[in-house]
Amino acid sequence: MLVSIHQPDYLPWLGYFNKIALSDVFVFLDDAQFSTDNIHNWNRIKSPQGELKIKIPVEQKLGYKINEVRTKDELKWREKHLKSISMFYRRAPYYEEVFPDFENIIMKTYPDISKLNETIIRYFCDGFGIQTKFLLSSDLNLSTFNEERVIDICKAVGGTRYYSGNGAKAYQVEEHFTNRGIQLEYTHFEPFEYPQQWGNFIPCMSVIDYVMNCGFKKWW
């Protein structure tokens, strides 16, 4: 059984969904430490001026886990994000199909940013027809960290293969996985060009850029 693991990011790129689509089980690492360097509360869409960063204001302290971080809804970030997305994608072929559902998801209240991101990701997976099983790392009651935690998660969910991001090559040791009965594999997703609004193609935009322009067309 192939397992992949990742923090619940905000409106992630297609590579994130590619990993989910190729996995039997995907574990949201919702109890990892929140980081403003990672894409837990922001992402990129495309505007007439090029790449535009949209960011969710959050209430958090050093050491907070992702599932402990509250979104500052009182700052009306949801309305601002929806306005930007509507403004820049309303002429996209699949805007009318996607925007109302996305708006409905965004305007609901969530206890933390992890649950918001998880709900958004599940919506897009449903649209793509991805039937991967989802689990939360916080439900597994594990106390280990880093590479050992990844291995323990795989073992806890019955995984025999782990589908890792390439960035982890810097610290993961294949032998540590094989010694625990897990085959270590790395992602090989390459961004590809598709029709976009506003001029020349820009890779690695949020998934919403792809869906607004191409619908829920399967690519994997």
Question: Which characteristics define this entry?
Answer:
single chain; 220 residues; alpha/beta; two-stranded antiparallel ribbon; 7 helices; 9 strands; 33% helix; 17% strand; globular; WbqC; WbqC-like family protein
Characterise this structure.
Strand 8 (161-164), helix 6 (174-178) and strand 9 (183-186) form a beta-alpha-beta unit. Helix 2 (77-89) runs antiparallel to helix 3 (95-106). The protein contains 7 helices and 9 strands, in the order E-H-E-E-E-E-E-H-H-H-E-H-E-H-E-H. The model has no long low-confidence stretch (mean pLDDT 97). It has one domain. Strands 7-2-1-8-9 form a 5-stranded parallel sheet, with helices on both faces. A two-stranded antiparallel sheet has the order 3-4. It has a two-stranded antiparallel ribbon with strand order 5-6. The protein has helices at residues 14-21, 77-89, 95-106, 113-128, 146-156, 174-178, 207-214, and strands at residues 2-6, 25-28, 42-47, 50-55, 58-59, 70-71, 133-136, 161-164, 183-186. The chain has 220 residues and is an alpha/beta fold. Helices cover 33% and strands 17% of the residues. The radius of gyration is 18 Å and the shape is globular. The relative contact order is 0.22. InterPro entries: WbqC (IPR014985). This is WbqC-like family protein.
